[in-house]
């Protein structure tokens, strides 16, 4: 009888530990996601401010040094020069001067990477819509904050 009581107490303790540890992990993930969500919203706001003001440095700072930018119908831009190359193309060749991201979801579970899914709208200097589409961004937490690590998007407009 004594043996079964000890076994029961040990089992109860182990179950409680697992339950509360799991709850603590869920709280940690939720907190990490909320931190990421706030940082991503701020970064997305700055992203289009860079186009409004023609300040590529603000744009470049949104990305990690080892980023990939995967635009439709073009080679993947990789590495430290990728954000500037992309900014110059969007700004000078396509005339992007403003835009908006509509984040639909942010998910992840380890605190180092999160994924953002959403829609975008791009505008020219006269506020005429140039393009709209969808995107998937893998964000990486760095010493300097949350940065875009992998950026993939495509237009919702039919190609001609």
* Tally of domains: 1
N→C terminal distance: 81 Å
What is the residue-mean pLDDT, rounded to a whole number? Answer: 89
Strands ordered across the widest β-sheet: 2-1-6-5-4-3
Q: Fraction of residues in helices?
A: 40-55%
Radius of gyration using CA atoms only = 22 Å
CATH arch. level architecture:
Roll
β content, as a range?
A: 35-45%
What global shape is seen? elongated
CATH fold name: Nuclear Transport Factor 2, Chain: A
Spans of at least 5 consecutive residues with low confidence = none
Q: For the report, how would you describe the main beta sheet?
A: 6 strands, mixed
CATH class (first level) name: Alpha Beta
The run of helices and strands is: HHEEHEEEE
- DSSP strand tally: 6
The assigned structural class equals alpha+beta
Concise synopsis of the structure shown:
The chain is an alpha+beta fold and 160 residues long. The chain is 43% helix and 35% strand.
Outline the fold blueprint.
Layout: H1 2-53, H2 56-60, E1 63-70, E2 77-78, H3 82-93, E3 98-107, E4 113-123, E5 129-142, E6 145-155
Parallel strand pairs: 1-6
Antiparallel strand pairs: 1-2, 3-4, 4-5, 5-6
Can you tag this structure with a few keywords?
160 residues, alpha+beta, Nuclear Transport Factor 2, Chain: A, 6-stranded mixed β-sheet, 3 helices, 6 strands
Task: Provide structural commentary.
- Helices cover 43% and strands 35% of the residues.
- It is built from 3 helices and 6 strands.
- A 6-stranded mixed β-sheet has the order 2-1-6-5-4-3, covered by helices on one side.
């Amino acid at each position: 009888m004594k043996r079964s009581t000890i076994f029961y107490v040990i089992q109860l303790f182990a179950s409680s530990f697992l339950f509360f540890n799991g709850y603590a992990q869920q709280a940690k993930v939720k907190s990490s996601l909320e931190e990421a969500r706030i940082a991503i919203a701020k970064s997305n706001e700055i992203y289009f401010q860079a186009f409004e003001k023609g300040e590529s440095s603000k744009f470049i700072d949104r990305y990690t040094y080892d980023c990939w930018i995967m635009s439709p119908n073009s080679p993947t831009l990789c590495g430290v020069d990728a954000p500037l190359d992309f900014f110059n193309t969007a700004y000078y060749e396509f005339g992007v001067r403003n835009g908006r991201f509509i984040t639909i979801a942010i998910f992840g579970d380890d605190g180092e990477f999160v994924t953002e899914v959403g829609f975008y709208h791009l505008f020219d200097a006269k506020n005429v819509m140039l393009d709209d589409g969808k995107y998937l961004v893998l964000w990486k937490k760095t010493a300097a904050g949350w940065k875009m690590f992998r950026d993939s998007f495509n237009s919702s407009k039919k190609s001609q």
